[in-house]
Amino acid sequence: MAVRSLWAVRRRGQRMLAWSAAWESRGWLHPFSTATQRTAGEDCSSEDPPDELGPSLAERALRIKAVKLEKEVQDLTVRYQRAIADCENIKRRTQRCVEDAKIFGIQSFCKDLVEVADILEKTTECISKESEPGDQKLLLEKVFRGLSLLEAKLKSVFAKHGLEKLTPIGDKYDPHEHELICHVPAGVGVQPGTVALVRQDGYKLHGRTIRLARVEVAVESQRRL
Question: pLDDT above 70 covers what percent of the chain?
């Protein structure tokens, strides 16, 4: 009985040695060897890194991203402040230009009117100094020449600055250019509904009516008001 037991143990030992030799001949590690256990341990350690490494990298990435966002916010804030300052400067310059245009917009027109005033002043001085008390004819001639020169200069100034005198006699009545004073009976050759008489001249500035002409409009005799 003891011989059989020893023989069975021997057979199992020989069988284990045969298996080990077969594994080693094929380059495999024995499942119960220390090398196999060490390799398995290394694999586990490579697949499962320490828990402290993951959160550290995540925090570092978040910090870098936060720094970048903070820098972008600062840049945008500076750009916004510069844009606001530029808008304020443009607004002030525009307001100054508008104020200057209101004050000095008629500077050229006033300069030309000064020349008209000079003519009127010189004519008055000439009449008062050179005319004798009894020479009325000479006085009237000087007044006429001075007024004629004054009228010519005024017309030149008006034309230069786009100021046009309205002469609507014979034109059809237009409420946008004429101010109706009264109706008069249409005479010979005068069409009803047209301007028969101008009481006060009108004016246009660059095509825009700035003063209506005060007129009398012709109508048929039975419609006279």
Answer: 70
